[in-house]
Amino acid sequence: MQLTHYQEITIIPDPEIAPYFIWSKLFTQFHIALAEMKNKHGIESIGVSFPDYHYDEKGKSSKLGLKLRVFAQSQKDLETLDLDKWLERLTDYVHVKRINEVGDKAKGHVVIRRYRRKNVLKQAEAFAEHKGIMLEAALIHCAKHKQDNKPYPYINLRSLSNNQPYALSIIQEMADNETQGSFNSYGINNAADKVTVPHW
């Protein structure tokens, strides 16, 4: 079943409040809403995209932009999600459009997934085991070599279980083919999946 309907959320520019602060509040509520959709209704087919997403491969600039598109397999799924209810405390900061059909708007498809920064200690442990050397020597080797920590745009969040802060770094890439499947409770792909959403 294809993603046939969508809703668009726009962050209202405010000179006194940084968009990343609003992204944090918005995505916290959205994450809770998707977890409830899965637990109460068994729905895992809600996916998102960032229409204004930008990432410069040279690492000079990156941004999420000010828009979030939320896709579903039916109007009913988006009505069940009820974004207006979940985002009612943010009405001064975000504008939620009514549910629309995707129709023929899509110019292609994108895959959205999480980028996890590499942990130097874990890299060193793996390198030490691979080379049969002491961990100290492996740490020195790994510290000398540039880490593959790319500056993808991110959203600052807090764990709902232990309140620890973490960054949800976002990779959004064009896809060759449309692929259907389920999404996680951020509305993006699990590590090994390449489920797509429409893009325009």
Automatic annotation (TrEMBL):
Gene3D superfamilies, sorted: CRISPR-associated endoribonuclease Cas6/Csy4
Keyword Lipoprotein: no
Residue stretches spanning the membrane: none
Entry's EC annotation: 3.1.-.-
GO aspect biological process, one term: maintenance of CRISPR repeat elements
Keyword DNA-binding assigned: no
Keywords carried by this UniProt record: Endonuclease, Hydrolase, Nuclease
Gene Ontology MF term list: endonuclease activity; hydrolase activity
NCBIfam families for the chain: cas_Csy4
Name of the featured protein: CRISPR-associated endonuclease Cas6/Csy4
Chain's gene name: cas6f_1
